[in-house]
Amino acid sequence: MDVIETRIPAVKRVVPKRHGDARGWFSETFRADVLARAGIVQPFLQDNQSFSAPKGTIRGLHFQLAPQAQAKLVRVLSGAILDVAVDLRRDSPTFGQHVAVTLDAEGGEQLYVPHGFAHGFCTLTPDTMVAYKVDAYYSPEHDRALVWNDPEIGIDWPVADAEAILSDKDKRAPRLSDLGTVF
């Protein structure tokens, strides 16, 4: 397993090795010791899974406030996504910047999203299933969202605004300039 920094070093790509033969392949998708060597040391407490039937489904950008902030380790079980992490740490030199990575079931790459980031994704294929580990339990009173298409952030989503499929919560989410200090 390789752990690779992105242009925002706190966000990391996790690339499991696949060992194949005539039957298919085998891969270790989670190794606490390898992640710890890369600075990812918090214990993951909950596994989440989502299924999105149509291509162009947007989920996010979501985050939880402290003391229930969540770090996430995201992977795709079927299909493909554009996975995005937005830096919400007010004192960070990369505040308001984002990392966008294509994840798919075929490659098995994962994205580590630390505390202080909003996270979301857009499905690139129909029938996409995403699984992710989090290091804090879901807390409705700490749950927040950032609007997915905020021009200040400038994410190049692979779907037009009018064609994106969103939850009501995500449609009503505020812009970065309206969030205030959250981390």
Automatic annotation (TrEMBL):
Q: Which UniProt keywords apply?
A: Isomerase
* Catalytic reactions on record: dTDP-4-dehydro-6-deoxy-alpha-D-glucose = dTDP-4-dehydro-beta-L-rhamnose
Q: In which pathway does it act?
A: Carbohydrate biosynthesis; dTDP-L-rhamnose biosynthesis
What the entry lists under Pfam families is as follows: dTDP_sugar_isom
Q: What is its EC number?
A: 5.1.3.13
Query: What top-level class of enzyme does the UniProt entry assign?
Result: isomerase
Question: Which SUPFAM superfamilies does the entry mention?
Answer: RmlC-like cupins (SSF51182)
The record's Gene3D superfamilies line, in alphabetical order, gives: Jelly Rolls (2.60.120.10)
Extract the InterPro entries matched here: RmlC-like, RmlC-like_jellyroll, RmlC_Cupin_sf
Describe the subunit structure. Answer: Homodimer.
The family this protein is said to belong to: Belongs to the dTDP-4-dehydrorhamnose 3,5-epimerase family.
Q: What does this protein do?
A: Catalyzes the epimerization of the C3' and C5'positions of dTDP-6-deoxy-D-xylo-4-hexulose, forming dTDP-6-deoxy-L-lyxo-4-hexulose.
The protein, known as: dTDP-4-dehydrorhamnose 3,5-epimerase
- Protein species of origin: Methylobacterium trifolii
Q: Name the gene.
A: rfbC
